[in-house]
Write a structure and sequence with these properties.
It contains 8 helices and no strands. It is mainly alpha-helical. Mean pLDDT is 79; it is low at 93-115.
């Protein structure tokens, strides 16, 4: 935390290298977060850019807490920036209107509840992230908020202006799609 506070102080004192150091240190993990929401690198980079502008603008207001960190604070800003980006672009592409997303799959909740031990499968972390990024926007957004950001369904429905049952349904469908894609990938490796 001391290192973070020293970095913030240097940025606020207009030390040019400090801003570069902040970016170099946090951009890779924040870009990964943005990619999970955007589903493509071009939009992820746009979100990262917009999020960093918000981070820099709000840096004077950062208050360190014993249970928090600069990185956690930055991730919250970046997550909100990603959600705003998706909402703004949903008007054109109808991506985030969770109630209007047409089911692109027909997997029932009673499908084989196979649990995967990802550490022992012939699938890389990059492949899994690509599978998540390829989910329909609504599925991907709820999945990210629930799994990675650890939001409750109540918090998700407040953020996305949807019902809890819709949030649960989107999560269930996202998991079903990922389960099917992982099974398919594992089967391809087992055939070879």
């Amino acid at each position: 935390m001391k290192e973070d506070l020293a970095l913030i102080k240097d940025i606020l004192n207009n030390r040019s290298k400090a801003l570069e150091a902040l970016y170099d240190r946090f951009a890779p993990s924040l870009l990964s977060l943005c990619f999970r929401y955007a589903g493509n690198m071009q939009d992820a980079e746009d979100i990262l850019h917009d999020g960093f502008i918000k981070i820099i603008k709000n840096l004077p207001d950062f208050k360190p807490r014993p249970d928090g960190s600069l990185e956690a604070w930055m991730k919250r800003i970046m997550t909100n920036t990603a959600l705003n980006f998706l909402r703004d672009h949903a008007k054109d592409r109808k991506q985030l209107d969770l109630d209007l997303i047409q089911d692109r799959i027909s997997l029932s909740a009673d499908n084989d509840p196979v649990e995967f031990d990802l550490a022992h499968l012939p699938i890389s972390q990059d492949q899994i992230m690509q599978m998540i990024a390829a989910l329909p926007a609504g599925y991907r957004t709820v999945f990210n908020l629930y799994v990675f950001e650890e939001y409750s369904h109540k918090e998700i429905c407040e953020k996305l202006n949807c019902t809890e049952s819709n949030s649960k349904s989107q999560l269930s469908k996202a998991r079903a799609v990922l389960r099917a894609r992982i099974s398919e990938t594992v089967n391809i490796y087992n055939i070879k």
